[in-house]
Amino acid sequence: MSKSISISLCMIVKDEELTIGRCLDCIKDIVDEIIIVDTGSTDRTKEIVKKYNSTIYDFKWIDDFSAARNYAFSKANKDYILWLDADDVFLSEDMKKLKELKTSLDPNVDSVTMKYNIGIDEHGNAASSYRRNRLVKRARNFVWKGFIHEYLEVYGNIINSDISVTHQKLKSTPNRNIEIFRSKLKQGIEFTPRDLLYYAHELYDHNEFEEALLNYNKFLDDGFGWYEDNIRVCSNLTDYYQGEGKFEKAREYAFRSFQYDLPRAEACCRIGFSYLCENRLDQAIFWYELATNLKKPNDSLGFFNEASWTWLPHIQLCVCYDRLGDHKKAFEHNETAYNYSPNDHRVLYNRQYFESIGLKKSNDTAETL
């Protein structure tokens, strides 16, 4: 039987009294050391943290998340370092998986990725997610890069686990990131392609679309971006032009995303939606059906919208076939959507509609009343 690894939990925090206890409660019996780096809390964060047999360090905030995280990592003493934010948790099933990983991990592994569920739908299921290097070997001295939207630069023997970290946000700091970016610009800091990307994301999120689009196109045209980032930029640009009703322009960017990797269900659903809005139903059906047949690249570190890979194309195919008068096919796609999301109000509404026109579920087939 392999020896259990030891784990240091490293966190950077500031004014997290609403969530820090919840986070530490789920992890305190799994990790062997808790390192907390406080960047200027004025609430009860430190008082709460002290209850968890943790070591607290103060770090002057310099508008640089990587600097704070690297300082936290420098204080770790155990075999591996696990990092979390204060509003992250491990749900009960993932706690069990992490405990099992701790006793079974090959010590030759340098990094373990975990799925990061950053959006939860109304039914408690993961709505959007991506992978992050979450548990890393301390002896490798991996370094955080980037003053904001930082990333941990890892290499070597990396494995993808089936463990998830779930983001449960309670408070919002909507202007913090864009203010940091603008401060860096005033200081004359030269942005890397990644900085440019995330500055564009912030502009987009703040509805400053003209400047966001300029920076997005510069990012794509410069050609230095990671392929997953390129795909995400194409998605945002597609959504922008869809919202403007410029469907042909929207499709240009959805198709452009195919240059960077195999087609993704998200892009296919966006293309399908553009054709549906134009009532070009045969084209819409083609792209939605393609979305249902794609294999999700589970080893990717990119962002994924779970709906696009599960129920969404089916409920849209239901709409398309119903408009064409093929109610049986429409019904079947709605039932497939139901199997993925049985409590979705749209699916349930459609079920009532189909029953009203004489179709209902019977032995996994459509039965005419």
From TrEMBL:
Name all Glycosyltransferase 2-like domain ranges.
8-140
Q: Which domain of life is it from?
A: Bacteria
Which InterPro entries does this chain map to? Glyco_trans_2-like (IPR001173), Nucleotide-diphossugar_trans (IPR029044), TPR-like_helical_dom_sf (IPR011990), TPR_rpt (IPR019734)
Show the PANTHER family listed in the entry: GLYCOSYLTRANSFERASE, POLY-BETA-1,6-N-ACETYL-D-GLUCOSAMINE SYNTHASE
> What name has this protein been given in UniProt?
Glycosyltransferase 2-like domain-containing protein
Q: Which organism is it from?
A: Clostridium fungisolvens
